[in-house]
Amino acid sequence: MTISNTRQLLGLLGWLAAGLVTGAIGAIASVQAAEFYGTLVQPAWAPPASVFGPAWTVLYVLMSVAAWLVWRAGGWHSRGPVLRLFLVQLAVNALWSWLFFAWHLGAWAFADICVLWLLILATLIGFWRVRALAGLLLVPYLAWVSFATALCYRVWRDNPGVLG
Question: How much is the pTM?
Fold first, then answer.
């Protein structure tokens, strides 16, 4: 393996770590999520709690690969702004689990997910401009968060005594 290939592999592992660590931070806040989620009034179209973990794992991998592709196209020197935007949206993503599941702050969770949606859209556009495949890899993430935004709003509004 050449140094360049080693650097590419380490870069991929680094981006995967960033995505999966974000997921782990959210998972820490969600330790009791299945139990709590089960007590909430939910719309008929809400998926079972067991869907969220696998869905998010796939999304974090796709996001990480997208970031790696952008990083490969010029590194931090030329792609720094859009890569920093990606990291900001990861932080906002992790915060949502804490707001909703750990702290039961429905209004704040809804505000957070709306900001997250905008950050994902901006990141997707930025990634697409660097490499179309990287932007395309974020489309499932944007779709899932679009669905999650509607679900968050509905669950928050239907559970005023539980989610302040």
Answer: 0.94
* Residue that the structure tokens 């931070």 belong to: 25
Q: What is the pLDDT of residues 109-149, one digit of tens each?
A: 999 999 999 999 999 999 999 999 999 999 999 999 999 99
Q: Predicted confidence band at 30 (pLDDT cuts at 50, 70, 90)?
A: confident
Write the DSSP assignment of the chain as a string of letters: --HHHHHHHHHHHHHHHHHHHHHHHHHHHTTTHHHHHHHS---TTPPPGGGHHHHHHHHHHHHHHHHHHHHHTTHHHHHHHHHHHHHHHHHHHHHHHIIIIIS--HHHHHHHHHHHHHHHHHHHHHHHHH-HHHHHHTHHHHHHHHHHHHHHHHHHHH-TTT--
How many of the other CB atoms lie within 10 Å of CB of 143? 12
Structure-token pair, residue 119: 């950050």
| CB count in 10 Å sphere of residue 68 | 21
Interhelix angle 139-158/106-130, nearest 10 degrees: 170
